[in-house]
Amino acid sequence: MSIPILLPADEAGLAQAVERLTAGEPVAVPTETVYGLAARADHAEAVAAIYRAKGRPDFNPLIVHVSDVAAAEKLAVVDERARSLAQAFWPGALTMVLPRREGAPLAEAVTAGLPTVALRCPAHPVMRQVLAQSGLALAAPSANRSGGVSPTRAEHVAESLAGRIGLVLDGGACAQGLESTIVALREGGGWQVLRPGPITAQAIAEALGEDELAASEEDGGIEAPGQMTSHYAPGKPVRLNAREAQADEFHIGFGAIAGAMNLSPSGDLAEAAANLYTALHASAQADQPRVAVAPVPDSDIGAAINDRLRRAAA
Known about the structure:
The chain is of the alpha/beta class. It has helices at 11-22, 44-54, 69-73, 80-89, 108-111, 125-134, 154-160, 201-208, 269-285, 302-313, and strands spanning 5-8, 27-29, 36-40, 63-65, 94-99, 116-120, 138-139, 167-170, 181-185, 191-195, 238-239, 249-253, 261-262, 290-293.
């Protein structure tokens, strides 16, 4: 199975990536959260190539990456609440689910038939240069097989998508290592976090000046990436809140619980988030047939870490 070309994100690498993206070919690109498998969002065949490479269900929508608010306004209805969030958190690890603008140049598969579109303005300098040089809005889910562990290094992408894509821009390890927070701004007012991430619900509430809407019985449909029950899985059974490992388990530790690999010996949740997927990749490669994970506090970004772990264990 052919391994994709790994190129440094220098002038030549960026030029080749932009050339391939413009032609409708998907390219793996680093962001501050995880590596994304980018393709032009206005091109149905390019978006289809993402789905083929990932083996991704076609009912799961994609996040579209844009360079700024002006680019977002071409694709979605951006109200004052969205502007407030963009001012507070863009560029950065916040994705907003907004009403799709009528006539927006988006392939239908990007929104999976929904009347909304998920938009993010990334902060990573490589992804920002790709957006600027291509002039495109880029659909870019995580650059791995669907349902598997998200990639935080170029070699993770090469391993997961060997034989499926041609080029990975190598920008080193991702700084945050956890996918963006996804917030839905509801028509008529109110908001809900659809996927926890580096930006907490409390920070969003402070920026908007209003508390999050309570979940209702009607909620539960897939509106955004990362909402499938089983996701981020290392391909082995995962046991959570394990202070000790059994003989056949690869133990992922946290804080004072050392484990075979520790998310953060000092108990720093941001460090744990950055190391989470590297640890899950290591557990997938380990000889042990099962995985155990030490307890992680559910406060602050720990809520997002535990969200990913519960889905990995589902």
